[in-house]
Design brief:
By secondary structure, the chain is mainly α. It has 8 helices and no strands.
């Protein structure tokens, strides 16, 4: 035990943990591009002649795909690591927006914004929080998870004004293109900062080990439940 504790310094571990935490927050800030649809859809009904029902379909599909894909994405990040899965999320989201910029059809918008971007957001969102909380003791799990997830909610603060500016300056299709390229780069780059702690890592602040000769405390048996 003495050898394992000496190989991992609490200080650098906490520093790495904060890097991962703020990278996850930045990823969620970018993936909050989902909120841009409320602004873009209004412009679509004016310029493209879509009715409100048609304008709501791509967003509804994106929400459904986003929620559904978080389940397999969570399992993937457990097995393959958060960096790869979050990178895939940035790629899917970027390509989805770029595809949506290529035409004015409902099918293209559902495929691009609804399915691809929705899947990308699910992949990125599912990969941002788990690696961050692993760097910190249980007492800080709520704080770290809250910081990472807050990025998604805070995106609504900037995404609406940004989308309005882009729509006025460049139009609908170029707005999709600009957002797609920007968030592709941001999410993929920040994803490279995501990593799990090394094997045997013990975050500072965990309960101290029991003293020699003291009776061990009874622990509940750990049970790993499958989704079924």
């Amino acid at each position: 035990m003495a050898v394992q504790q000496s190989t991992v310094s609490p200080g650098p571990g906490q520093k790495s943990g904060w890097i991962v935490t703020f990278a996850g927050t930045g990823i969620n800030l970018a993936l909050g591009v989902l909120y841009a649809w409320s602004v873009i859809s209004k412009q679509i009904t004016k310029e493209w002649g879509w009715n409100e029902t048609q304008a709501a379909i791509p967003y509804s599909v994106a929400i459904a795909v986003f929620a559904f894909m978080m389940v397999p994405a969570g399992r993937m990040q457990d097995k393959l690591g958060p960096r790869l899965v979050a990178t895939l999320g940035g790629i899917f989201c970027g390509i989805g927006f770029i595809l949506a910029s290529l035409g004015q059809s409902l099918i293209g918008m559902v495929l691009g914004f609804g399915i691809l971007a929705g899947a990308g957001i699910g992949f990125g969102y599912a990969s941002a929080t788990p690696p961050a909380v692993k760097w910190f003791p249980p007492a800080r799990t709520g704080l770290i998870a809250g910081l990472v997830v807050a990025g998604f909610g805070l995106a609504s603060v900037y995404i609406a004004p940004l989308a309005n500016y882009l729509l006025f300056a460049f139009g609908i299709q170029k707005t999709f293109l600009i957002l797609g390229i920007a968030f592709f780069l941001v999410v993929v780059l920040l994803s490279q900062l995501l990593r799990n702690p090394p094997a045997g890592y013990k975050p500072s602040g965990n309960p101290p080990p029991a003293k020699a000769g003291s009776p061990p405390k009874a622990q509940a048996a750990a049970v790993d439940y499958e989704w079924t």
